[in-house]
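A.,

Following up on our hallway conversation. Structure tokens first:
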């Protein structure tokens, strides 16, 4: 009993995590259609005691499905999400294809569930899952924004391999081994050595000198919060970490906010955990956040560069595959039931 679900991109890092999250959250379903490219058609997965065969994603894949979770890249979403929606299948799209499209809700369930009000499984429509860095930043910043209203936000990211997919994670592992063995490194996904290195995010550069990942932070934050006048700037960096993003965030507020008030608001926000032990220099790390649902926040401190109480610095870590992608998508799907 429950909706018939399709997962587009089942063989990928996020597709596989979606299955795990469905189990963890006891998500009800009557059937799961596992979809990927022709390369993977015929591959078998056992999930919750049943065997499934991967099918090639085609225009016919979504007939009779109630919910489709898409994580097969932007071009696949662009082509097939509207087809699925037209067939009455409600799409939760993890790609950037429709995030900024007017009329498509861009949702973090803890933050703006009202944006998808009225949408239901089996009724068609598309809901976009925000960019992973945006979700992770906003889980920490939204409770503070609600308290003291953010005027300006400066974000520096330290992003994991997983955001670039399964093959990127494999490349990091392989290069690490090659470096340790004194071998030349194999480069397939990134144009730079990744192991023991870091580099500016590999998304395309835009005309203003920001890459697309940085512009996603700017535009998606404004859409999720429904506020067009917030000043946001960011620098996105890929670091050799497997699956959790870290972000250093500087915030300027309209109103006064103390460290204590900030910590209290963070503590009360669902999906946020605090690691903020100054005495022991113990703060969030990507490994703390890896495979976890929560976003971890620490280093919460008054910005001493200002002469007032309207600035805070924080450090945030969140699992890119989970809250940054699969978990947020499944939480959206829960709202469709
Ligand atoms: P496949 O393994 O058959 O290529 P990741 O983000 O981890 O790289 O995963 C990308 C996902 O998108 C994979 O499941 C991949 O399937 C799927 N995918 C890539 N290209 C297509 C396509 N043309 N049609 C359907 N699925 C695709």
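Then the amino acids I'd put at each of the 337 positions:
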């Amino acid at each position: 009993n429950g909706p018939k679900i399709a997962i587009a991109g089942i063989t990928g890092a996020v597709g596989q995590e979606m299955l795990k999250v469905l189990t963890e959250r006891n998500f009800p379903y009557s059937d799961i259609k596992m979809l990927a490219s022709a390369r993977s058609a015929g591959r078998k997965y056992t999930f919750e005691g049943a065997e499934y065969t991967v099918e090639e994603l085609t225009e016919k894949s979504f007939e009779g499905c109630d919910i489709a979770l898409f994580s097969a890249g932007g071009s696949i979403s662009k082509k097939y999400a509207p087809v699925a929606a037209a067939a009455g299948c409600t799409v939760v799209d993890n790609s950037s294809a429709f995030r900024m499209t007017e009329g498509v809700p861009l949702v973090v369930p803890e933050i703006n569930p009202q944006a998808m009000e009225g949408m239901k499984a089996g009724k068609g429509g598309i809901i976009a899952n925000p960019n992973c860095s945006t979700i992770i930043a906003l889980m920490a910043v939204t409770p503070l924004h609600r308290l003291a209203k953010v005027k300006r936000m400066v974000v520096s990211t330290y992003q994991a391999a997983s955001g670039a997919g399964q093959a990127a994670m494999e490349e990091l592992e392989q290069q690490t081994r090659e470096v340790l063995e004194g071998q030349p490194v194999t480069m397939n996904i990134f144009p730079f050595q990744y192991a023991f290195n870091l580099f500016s995010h590999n998304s395309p550069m835009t005309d203003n000198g920001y890459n697309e990942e940085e512009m996603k932070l700017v535009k998606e934050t404004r859409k999720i919060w429904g506020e067009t006048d917030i000043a946001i700037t960011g620098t996105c960096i890929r670091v050799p970490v497997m699956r959790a993003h870290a972000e250093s965030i500087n915030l300027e507020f309209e109103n006064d906010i103390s460290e204590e008030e900030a910590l209290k608001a963070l503590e009360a926000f669902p999906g946020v955990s605090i690691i903020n032990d100054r005495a022991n220099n113990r703060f969030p790390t990507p490994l703390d956040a890896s495979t976890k649902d929560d976003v971890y926040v620490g280093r919460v401190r008054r910005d001493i560069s200002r002469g007032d109480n309207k600035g805070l610095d924080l450090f945030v870590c969140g699992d890119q595959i989970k809250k940054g992608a699969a978990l947020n998508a499944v939480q959206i799907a829960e709202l469709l039931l």
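The chain has a mean pLDDT of 98. Curious whether your intuition agrees with the design.

B.
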